[in-house]
Every structure is written in C-alpha cells, then in structure tokens.
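Example: V-type proton ATPase subunit a.
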Amino acid sequence: MELLKNLPEMDLMRSEKMTFVQLIIPVESAHRAISYLGELGLLQFRDLNDDKSPFQRTFVNQVKRCAEMSRKLRFFKDQIHKAGLLSSALPTLQPDVDLEALEIQLAEHEHELIEMNANSEKLQQTYNELLEFKMVLQKAGGFLISGKSYETAEGRELDENVYPSDYPESASLLEQATQPGPSNLAGLRFISGIIPKSKVLLFERMLFRATRGNLLFNQAPADDLIMDPVSSEMVEKTVFVVFFSGEQAKTKILKICEAFGANCYPVPEDMTKQSQITQEVLSRLSELETTLDVGIRQRNAALHSIGFHLTIWMNMVKREKAVFDTLNMLNFDVTKKCLVGEGWCPIFAKPQIQEALQRATFDSNSQVGIIFHVMDAVESPPTYFRTNKFTNAYQEIVDAYGVAKYQEANPAVYTVITFPFLFAVMFGDWGHGICLLLGAMVLIAREGKLGSQKLGSFMEMLFGGRYVLLLMSLFSIYCGLIYNEFFSVPYHIFGSSAYRCRDAACSEAHTVGLIKYRDAYPFGVDPSWRGSRSELPFLNSLKMKMSILFGIAQMNLGIILSYFNSIFFSSSIDIRYQFVPQMIFLNSLFGYLSLLIIIKWCTGSQADLYHVMIYMFLSPFDDLGENELFWGQRPLQIILLLSALVAVPWMLFPKPFILRKLHSERFQGRAYGILRSSEMDTDSEPGSARHHEEEFNFSEVFVHQMIHSIEFVLGSVSNTASYLRLWALSLAHSELSTVFYEKVLLLAWGYENIIIRMVGLAVFAFATAFILLMMETLSAFLHALRLHWVEFQNKFYHGDGYKFKPFSFAAIADDED
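Written out as structure tokens, the predicted fold is:
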C-alpha cells in the first residue's frame, strides 16, 4: 500500500490539483489585470452576480459599445466580401489604439461607406433604367415596324401612344422628348416595358385573363443582363409590347405591370424620334458608366484601407468585450473602490497568476496592490488535464462520454493504446492499414498549413483525429500481419508454410484438407489456411476466443482502476464491498472461461468449452468426461460457482447497512474520528454515500446499491458477449475484402480484353476506397468507441465532473473560428 502511494504521479492519470482563490483588485488596475489574466489563460472566474440580469451589471454600457463596434466590423467584413476583396490576414502591427478613438474611427468609416453605398445604388438604379430603356427602344421598335406593315395591309393605323400627357409620371425618363402628339382614343394602343424573365409566363397569363383575350402580347429576350442594385446579382429580363384597345384595358394593364414589378417605358412611333432618343440614352449611359467606375474604385480603396486593419480591430474588440464580460462577473465592494473576484486555478499556475497581477499593478501605476489569496470552497473543483496535440484527441473521445470527476482516474491514459488496438482487431489488414497510414502521414505533414485554415466539419474532425488515425493504421498493419492479410491475400512473409495438401485439389470442400509436415509458421496465421476447407472454422474459433480474452482483460483493467480510485479517495468501503466481490464474480465465471481457452490452445485438447460452461451451472457435480482439461477441474468449478453466488449478496447488502450505521453514529457523537475518513466522503459514491447532514434515506441508498449490483451481474454477461463484435467485424471485413478481390478483380483479370480488366480494376479500387477504407473504418471506429464507453468505462468511471474553462483570449479566438 505504501509502495503504491509513493509512486510518481502521471500528468494525465489524474486531473490537475486545483485551488479556489479570491482576488481583490483596485478599480484603476482592474481592466489591465483582467487583460493580463486573459493572455495567461489559467484562471476560471466564478460569476458573483448570477442573480443579476445582463442589464443590471456594472459594465453593461461598455459591453453594449463593444457589441455595437462588433456589428460595424461585421458590416465592414460583409462589404469587403461582397466587393471581392481580401482582408489582410496578418496586418502590420500598429500602435495601441484607444477604445474611444477606435469607436469614433469605426463610426466615421461606417458613415462614409453607407453614404457611398447609397450614392452607388442611386447611380446603379438610374443606369439600369437607361439600359432597360435602350433595350426597350431597340426591341419594341421592331415590333412597331412589323405592326405598321400589318396595319397598312389591313387598312388600319396606330393612332395613339399609351403615354399621353395625362400620365406624366409614366414617362419619367427623357420626358420632354417622348411626349406624343394628339392621338385617337378609339384606335389601337400599346404599352412597352421590361420584366424579369422568370415572371413572363405568369404575367402574360394574367394579362390575358384581365382583358379576356383582347390584346396582342409580343416579347423578346433582352440582350444584356441587368444587375440588381440590392443583391448585386445579374438578372435576365424580357422586353414586351402589349397592344390593346380601350381606356379600361389600359388601366388594368398598368396595374398588372406594377404588381409584377415590370418597368414601363414610352416608345414613340416616329422612327426619327426613336433614333434621337436612342442616341441620347447611349450618351447618358456612357457618362454613368464612367461615374460608376470612379465610385467603385473609390469605394474599393476605402474598403482596402479598412481591410488592412480589420483583423486586428476585430481581435481588439473581441478582447475588450471579453474583458468587460469578465469584469461583470466580479463584485464591487461596499466602498466602490475595488472589485472582488473568485475563481479556480491549477496549483502550478499560482506563481504565474501572481506575477501577472503584479505586472498589472505596476503598469497601471496603482498605489494599491492586488490581493491574491487562497480560500476554501464547498463545491467540487473543475477538471483540467494538460494535453498536447497527440493526447488531446483521445481526451476528447473520453470527454464526449462525460468529463471526469475531479482527480478521478482518467481513461484516456489507456485509451491511447486500447482504442486503436481494438479498432485494428476488427480492421486487421496490413494493405488497408498502409492506406490509412498514408492518409494520416499526409495530415500530420501538413498540420501547420491545415491548422491555420478553416476546414469543413468532416475535414476538421479528420484533422483533429490525425494521431488517432496514425495509431489505428499502425495497429491495423500489426494485426494484418498476424491475420496474414494484404487486401485479403496471404503472403509467405515469415517463411514457408507448415502445412501442405494431401492432394492437388486440397482447396476443394470434398478433400481431407491439410496435413502438418514442419514447425508452426513463425508469426501470425499460416498462409495455407487461406482457401482451405477448414479456413472458416479455424479463423472463427481463433477470433472468437481472442475477442473473449481481450474483453475479459479490459474489463478486469476497469475494475482494477476502480480499486485505485478507492485508494486515492481513501474509501475502504468501496474496496471491501465493491472491488473485491466484483473481481471474484467476473473471474469466477469469465476469468475461468479465459483460462480454459488458454489451456485448450496450449494442450491442443478437443474439449467442448460450450458444454463445460453450460453444465458448470446445470450439473456442477457431474463427471466432465472427455471435456476435462486438467486434473481437479470439477472441484475447482464448484468452488468458483459458489464464489460467484456469494459475491452477489456481498455486493448488495453490507454497504447500505454500514453507511446507515456510520450516519447514525455521526449524530450520536460517538464517531467523530470517522468523519475524517473518506468513508463518509460525499463524493466517493454518488447516490449511495452522498447524504445530508440531517437525513439519510436508507431505502434510496439500498435501491441504488441493488441497481448497481444487478447491473454489474447482468453486465458481466452482456459485456462479455459484446466483445464478440471484435470477432464479427473482423470476419466481415476479411470476407468482404475476399469477395471484392476474387469476384471483381480476379474475375475481370480472367478476360483477355483490356477494357474489362480496367473496369474490374476501377470497381475494385472504388470498393476498396469507399467501402473498405471509409465505411468499414467508420464502423470499426464506432464499435471500438462503444466498447470503451460502455464495457470499459462503466466499471470505474463516473464522468460527472465539469471542465475547467479559464478566461483565455486564445479560447475566444478558437471559438470564433
């Protein structure tokens, strides 16, 4: 026991030791102190104003100002993105800008940009109208010429334009030049205009219904695309001319045009006037193009100037807002001259925090120093593991199940090895492992470049788990060498086979199979098993028994870790009435099964282990006969069975009664010494040992212990069976690889046609990449995840803690990304 206590601590085995601290900060140095602590990132503040709304806090005005500046910066970023410009990712360092000065500067830039955008929209709107007018003049003129020739043939003529002097607002463009002369109201009229192409069919149908078919609708596609000034998208439009008769029809048509967003333009019937107006429109278009180009260059220059400093401004505003948000978590003392803050920090970080606070006091020229002292806390400390880029992914896998309780044994230490190994047991193929290794090496080689880029959700997950993928691929190569499978093909890598065929057709089902003629193959599965009659029974037996051995070993590791947890928290009750009976129960049944598997492998016995385990329960006193593997097996089975039966009430009954006894002694004043032991630790066993000062609910504790005991007993059976997924997925992966190799690649290669061979090779490569390397990898990953979360971690891991989340500028930047 003393030896275990004297062992050096592992950094990742248990979370960092935390301490609860209080800060008393003078007002004049508060902002600088919080800023320095944010750069350090090792202190988690507790909200002392939790009962106040965000609008009742001290620095709410500063937070609002920062939020408003963030809105302006997002506006600038959107404008730069719309303009197709790039903001500088690494701007030149500039002198520190005061927050008030930056606020004024941002307001000026926003006002300037809004004014530029408004002018640009007006100019663009005028330009669009002139461009549409030009296209209407060109297209509608053709309709009018064809209409006139038709009228001459029929003895009719167009008497009046649709835009008489009664509707001056309809002819807003070039009004004086396009006013027609007196017209005959009884004659045929027309309306010309332009409409988005997507609305033409509905527009025509609505016109037809409104006039009951008394119209002639002509249309032609516009030659140029029109830019929408609001969305900056190019819109395809269609020019139309509607011929009709009557004042009432004109009113209906104009209303329908307004409803559909069609722009109507006057077109004179006189060809001379048309050409004059067209020339004037072209002249004004040329002037507007020049004006628009100048405005765009001026706007882009302003945006480029803003974009050069945008990144550093955004970082500065984000930091300032985070500082004021943190200051809002602090409490003013009664004199309003200092701020009081509380929080958690790792013990190793105390000197660094004190040094940062001293620097803040000196830099702010404060006459009063910042007081930093340790306090006692009632609540449980947060959990903090110091990880690196290699161990971080494995810690995230464990944290996805639940964050470790403070100072609880961390499963990530063992997950680093057991997770990729169990994955490889299911995925074992050294050809596929090499493919995964190449992918992992590419991600690791480019981690500097990829780490600074914004990746998609899938690539970000793949990049974050690059070192998990690395170990998964290495273990897959190792297990593939043991299985002797390279894309399902065996190779004589470690020497010649120990078996040979009795006849030339030994791979056929009707033959008597293989005979052994030399020493066993030195490493892994003998390649001669591939294709033989007994291949599947042999590999099934091997992988099934191997899965049980791995499962029992890992579950025993989990129970042993519960022992180390009990030692660490000094909980002798958990050792005596939880760890010991659990070890006895699991190993009396399934540990014994593992022993039988190893003995059968070593002796080559033909005993039926199914029969042995079933009749161990049904007929423990019967003679084993040919299923006896060693002398004294039957009495040993009886002893183990009785031990397993005794272990169940051992787990169930003593612990609740002992806890009740300790609670009653506590309030009778006879066991004050016991109060110092962790057997009364409220965190040692959630639900059972967590009792209040004045009440102890024995029924609740007993029911919880009963559920825990039944769960362990039933879980021992179900969890052992669950590890058979290692056998099932390994077999499925191997057989699927064999099918693709034999039924696709070899079948195609049997033809002399080069096209068939290439098609077969392409199908084989596609199936290998997308089915075996992607889907099978994901499947094996998820199954390995389940084995760790359910079968392994439920033996010792509570996972009811909460993460250490310090105030850190680096974390704010990561969250923003």
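The CA atoms of residues 257 and 434 lie 67 Å apart.
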